């Protein structure tokens, strides 16, 4: 009697056999969540403070608060950053919407800020833990339940980018990308398997044969939903369109050579991407044209193009079989059709053609110039032009990384036998993500999925060799109650024990050990930046913008209509979100790399005004010109305040000239008793960054320090030692404020007369809010008529209402000296701000 005669009994058997694995996956999921919440004490601080990790997490909270304030409307354009242009937000809307909806539900329609912060903090950890589900099912259909369970365990402990981006407090969309892209691959795989097993043909569609269509259609629809969720988490989700299309080409070719129908593949692709087109279309912003980084026509066109690709390949494959054309012509025809399609697109839409041609290079090729200094955009395998596996080992462990390569090799070998669609899909998927991390290591959080699957696939093959399935069946036949478990162990063979030990030692334990070591909290922003930005918010003029309002983007080619009270804050792009979120002020540059300026392709380009060109400017006059050029309006400067920290002046300074493509001469190599050492050079000390941070803006006419934070031990003292020893300087070798805030002012003009051609000096002792003093000095030479002039940035009379409430100022009047003469000069704040003349 067949099992079909007892369908209920068969179903019960399936449930009974899958129950242990279901429970095991659930346990693995909870363990994964536990790992990701280990650093909770660094997120939930005393007093109800929730501290998120990294700058992008704070920007997500910014967009989330605006969303909650204006629900269901979300900010698309933000004029509060990249002043004076604003930035279009390239973050997908789904991540913020999921947190907002969860907050509304748990908060009974009126969530408190504390509840919102708590939900947002836990969200990445929950999404990271949920990833074990699709990983288990992909592994299951790749190599059986044992493979799926092992894959779930490996992704639960996967270290590196995947762990870091799914830790509690790392409230960023990256983990949503991983989760939804993996769910997409899972359901796409299930649709392929189901359609192939049911021998689905396009005739079944025309004949409405729902018995055959029902299950593949359901999986395809869900795959389309998951792809859309992935795309709406990150606009760059078109990466998986490319992966799917390349897989399809290989699968069509394989099927054609094997004389098998590919209708199952065409049906799945067409149904999946038809759903995605429908779901993504409402989020398109037509004014974005064709853009990869914002929701534009590009995302609809590429999804439609992928759909059309599946349809065209299916048509060609059926025609080949109908006309009995030799199989080796098929790939040649695909290549020709692809080239013809690109030619047509080039003439029909040059902008779309350019994007299609250049988009893959931004993913798969090593970045150069300024982008190469972005941590997550640098290559996984090249550091400083030298090949290294250090990052790969840190992200995937040594054995995990090499297991992934070996797993791909085994899957590739299967192509010459009778490859299953899921094997080809995982192979192409894994290879392309490996290629992607060659270009940018940010995709390591994708490749962790592949490492887990490929490592588990190898582990499953090892268990097959030691006949694990036979042992599994014997356990099922023997164990009817817990009391039967001890007797069942007599079936275990030594080779099976050794195989399990090998898997644990080589795959599981290294991942677990790395995860435990790396499951640590973040210190972003550090205390000095938090203090400095909060000081900025409380002690500088209100720029006149509604912080939580939703603003419409200006028309193409026009500037946003800022109020006259608006101004920018210049700092390196890393800190832009902190300035906006905590300071409620408008940074010129931000972590979207907007406002950086500089050059992108060639040193022959004009050096565009921005953070890079300002901080590397070689004189105060050149720096002023950059600030004035940032805002195209002739009566407005691009920034009123400049914020610098010790890292900008030392550790990360090299990134600034990298964005200008003019990197020579900032450092030099000298011989010391310990060998050759690289030290900062004259060009470095002439830069605006050094003039401001290392020299406290001493002698500058239009820049005054208005606040500094507590001093930390940094490399600042090393740079000062070099300046004194090598360049004959005489500056105090001490640690000063970690973050310093300067104000760009017109400066008061102090004029007087002395003997013709006489040297005249002006000085003042400056006292900072930290109790530190330093000398501000200038010198000039009187002209042939004896006239001299100084432009000074500090007020000796203190702040005035409505302007900067500085805590760094002269302790007394300026002292003008020449020959045996000294004169004291007092300068009002109005004179500094308005550029007034003061006669001595």
UniProtKB/TrEMBL annotation:
Membrane-crossing segments per the record: 21-38, 119-137, 149-168, 174-195, 216-233, 239-257, 264-284, 296-316, 328-348, 392-416, 423-439, 445-466, 497-517
EC number: 2.4.99.21
Swiss-Prot/TrEMBL cofactor(s): Mn(2+); Mg(2+)
Keyword Cytoplasm recorded: no
Enzyme superclass (EC): transferase
Membrane topology annotation: Multi-pass membrane protein
Compartments (UniProt record): Cell membrane
Keywords, sorted A to Z: Glycosyltransferase, Magnesium, Manganese, Membrane, Metal-binding, Transferase, Transmembrane, Transmembrane helix
Pfam families, per the entry: AglB_core-like, AglB_L1, STT3
Name of this chain's protein: dolichyl-phosphooligosaccharide-protein glycotransferase
């Amino acid at each position: 009697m067949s099992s079909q005669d007892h369908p209920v009994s068969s179903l019960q058997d399936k449930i009974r056999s899958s129950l242990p694995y279901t429970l095991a996956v659930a346990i693995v999921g909870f363990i994964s969540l536990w790992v990701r919440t280990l650093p909770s004490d660094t997120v939930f601080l005393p007093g109800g403070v929730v501290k998120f990790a990294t700058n992008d997490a704070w920007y997500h909270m910014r967009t989330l608060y605006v969303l909650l304030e204006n629900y269901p409307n979300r900010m698309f354009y933000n004029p509060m950053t990249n002043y004076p242009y604003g930035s279009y937000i390239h973050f997908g809307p789904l991540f913020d919407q999921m947190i907002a909806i969860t907050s509304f539900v748990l908060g009974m329609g009126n969530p408190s800020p504390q509840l919102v912060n708590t939900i947002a903090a836990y969200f990445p950890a929950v999404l990271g833990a949920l990833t074990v589900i699709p990983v288990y099912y992909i592994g299951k259909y790749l190599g059986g339940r044992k493979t799926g369970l092992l894959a779930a365990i490996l992704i639960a402990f996967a270290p590196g980018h995947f762990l870091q981006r799914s830790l509690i407090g790392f409230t960023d969309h990256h983990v949503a990308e991983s989760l939804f892209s993996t769910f997409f691959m899972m359901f796409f795989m299930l649709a392929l398997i189901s359609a192939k097993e049911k021998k689905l043909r396009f005739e079944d569609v025309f004949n409405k044969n729902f018995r055959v269509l029902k299950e593949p259609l359901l999986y395809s629809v869900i795959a389309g939903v998951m792809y859309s969720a992935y795309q709406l988490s990150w606009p760059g989700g078109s990466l998986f369109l490319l992966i799917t299309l390349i897989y399809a080409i290989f699968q069509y070719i394989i099927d054609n050579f094997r004389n098998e129908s590919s209708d199952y593949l065409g049906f799945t692709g067409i149904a999946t991407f038809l759903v995605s087109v429908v779901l993504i279309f409402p989020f398109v912003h037509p004014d974005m044209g064709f853009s990869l980084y914002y929701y534009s026509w590009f995302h609809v066109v590429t999804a439609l193009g992928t759909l059309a690709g599946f349809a065209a390949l299916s048509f060609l494959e059926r025609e080949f079989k109908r006309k009995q054309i030799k199989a080796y012509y098929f790939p040649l025809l695909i290549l020709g059709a692809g080239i013809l399609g690109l030619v047509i697109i080039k003439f029909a839409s040059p902008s779309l053609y350019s994007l299609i041609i250049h988009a893959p290079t931004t993913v798969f090729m090593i970045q150069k110039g300024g982008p190469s200094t972005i941590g997550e955009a640098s290559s996984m395998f090249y550091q400083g032009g030298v090949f290294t596996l250090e990052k790969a080992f840190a992200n995937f462990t040594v054995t995990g990384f090499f297991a992934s390569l070996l797993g791909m090799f085994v899957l590739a070998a299967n192509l010459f036998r009778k490859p299953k669609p899921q094997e080809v899909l995982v192979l192409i998927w894994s290879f392309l993500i490996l290629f992607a991390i060659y270009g940018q290591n940010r995709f390591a959080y994708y490749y962790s999925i592949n490492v887990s699957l490929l490592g588990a696939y190898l582990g499953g093959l090892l268990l097959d060799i030691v006949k694990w399935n036979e042992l599994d069946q014997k356990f099922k036949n023997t164990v009817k109650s817990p009391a039967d478990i001890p007797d069942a162990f007599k079936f275990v063979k030594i080779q099976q024990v050794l195989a399990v030990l090998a898997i644990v030692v080589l795959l599981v334990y290294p991942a677990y050990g790395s995860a435990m070591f790396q499951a640590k909290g973040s210190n972003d922003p550090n205390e000095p930046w938090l203090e400095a930005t909060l000081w900025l918010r409380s002690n500088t003029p209100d720029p006149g913008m509604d912080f939580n309002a939703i603003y419409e983007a200006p028309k193409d080619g026009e500037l946003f209509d800022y109020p006259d009270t608006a101004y920018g804050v210049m700092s390196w792009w890393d800190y832009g979100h902190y300035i906006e979120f905590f300071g409620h002020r408008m940074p010129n540059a931000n972590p979207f790399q907007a406002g950086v300026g500089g050059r992108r392709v060639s040193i022959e380009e004009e050096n565009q005004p921005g953070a890079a060109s300002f901080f590397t400017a070689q004189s105060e006059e050149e720096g002023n010109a950059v600030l004035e050029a940032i805002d195209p309006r002739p009566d407005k400067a691009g920034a009123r305040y400049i914020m610098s920290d010790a890292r900008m002046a030392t550790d990360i300074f090299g990134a600034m000239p990298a964005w200008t493509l003019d990197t020579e001469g900032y450092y030099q190599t000298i011989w010391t008793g310990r060998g050759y050492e690289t030290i900062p050079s004259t060009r470095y000390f002439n830069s605006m960054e050094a003039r401001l941070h290392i020299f406290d803006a001493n002698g500058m006419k239009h820049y005054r320090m208005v606040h500094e934070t507590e001093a930390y031990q940094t490399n600042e003292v090393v740079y000062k030692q070099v300046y004194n020893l090598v360049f004959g300087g005489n500056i105090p070798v001490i640690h000063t404020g970690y973050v310093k805030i300067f104000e760009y002012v017109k400066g008061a003009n102090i004029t007087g007369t002395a003997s013709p051609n006489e040297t005249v000096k002006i000085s003042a002792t400056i006292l900072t809010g930290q109790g530190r003093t330093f000398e501000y000095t200038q010198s000039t030479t009187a002209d042939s008529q004896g006239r001299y002039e100084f432009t000074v940035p500090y007020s000796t009379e203190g702040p005035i209402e409505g302007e900067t409430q500085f805590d760094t100022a002269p302790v007394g009047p300026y002292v003008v000296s020449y020959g045996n003469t000294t004169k004291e000069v007092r300068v009002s704040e109005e004179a500094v701000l308005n550029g007034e003349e003061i006669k001595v």
